[in-house]
Write a structure and sequence with these properties.
Length: 271
């Protein structure tokens, strides 16, 4: 959906950037506008590796969903900056366990429209409008209530969006509140950009997003700061690591892994 060939849908502003559409551009998608591409190119000028990083996150999604299906999880809740990709959560899970159910949560109209179209004929999936800063609204949404049994374990995926939410917006508190309502044995998978190995670009990249998203506060987080999102959860092996190091099919050296400065981990709610 290039803006050169198709007008924006109702409720979509082609003059306001969207994290979901920016991520789509990094992943090689076409569901983005000129304003999204302009911002993404500013990031790529500082960090050309950003495009490959999107692919590594998608590979992690496939590995982690498959792992948790094998562990017995049958309920999935993906929250955040998401647009359909080649291998979505429900497709990975239902291929291994057809009874699996998935709900996608987003606040971007393009993401919502695409998700609804993609899932229209899949009765075990659904789409809900919401943001992580309002966890109760997500869990109490009619679509979530219809498909997700909160008395049973669920896997929550928080990919590629916590890094854009400043501390003073209640980022940590919102994730903790969400976890409080999950059943024991539930899992939370998180990806988060960290700048331990790229301090030279940390503030410059943060400035691009702060300006675009009109969020003047907040700074880039380190690995240790991002790990705090797992407080109260038990990190499963190998812990909170660079995304390419989380149970890769083929071993990745430390030198190669840090080139993708996105950390990933999975926490299990004890009990």
């Amino acid at each position: 959906m290039s803006d050169a060939t198709q007008p924006p849908s109702p409720g979509v502003s082609a003059s306001t950037p969207s994290v979901a559409r920016i991520n789509n551009y990094f992943a090689g998608g076409k569901d983005n506008f000129a304003i999204d591409r302009e911002l993404a190119e500013k990031v790529l000028a500082l960090a050309p590796e950003a495009k490959a990083m999107g692919e590594h996150v998608q590979e992690f999604r496939q590995r982690v969903v498959a792992h948790l299906v094998e562990a017995g999880v049958r309920q999935f809740l993906q929250i955040g900056a998401w647009l359909p990709v080649e291998r979505n959560v429900h497709q990975i899970a239902q291929e291994l366990a057809p009874e699996s159910r998935a709900v996608y949560v987003a606040d971007d109209p393009v993401a919502l429209n695409h998700a609804r179209a993609l899932l229209a004929t899949n009765e075990r999936t659904g789409v809900a409008e919401g943001v992580i800063l309002e966890p109760d609204a997500i869990l109490d949404h009619p679509v979530t209530r219809r498909l997700i049994d909160l008395s049973q374990p669920v896997m929550v995926l928080l990919f590629g969006m916590l890094q854009y939410i400043p501390d003073d917006f209640g980022a940590y508190e919102s994730v903790a509140a969400l976890c409080d309502r999950l059943a024991p044995g539930s899992y939370v998978a998180i990806t988060h950009a960290v700048f331990d190995t790229r301090p030279d670009i940390a503030e410059a990249v943060a400035d691009i997003y702060r300006d675009a998203l009109k969020r003047p506060s907040g700074g880039p987080r380190t690995m240790a700061e991002a790990k705090r999102f797992f407080d109260g959860l038990e990190l499963i092996e190998p812990g909170f690591v660079y995304v390419r190091q989380w149970r890769p099919h083929t071993p990745v050296s430390d030198a190669e892994a840090v080139k993708t400065w996105i950390a990933a981990g999975v926490g299990r709610k004890p009990g």
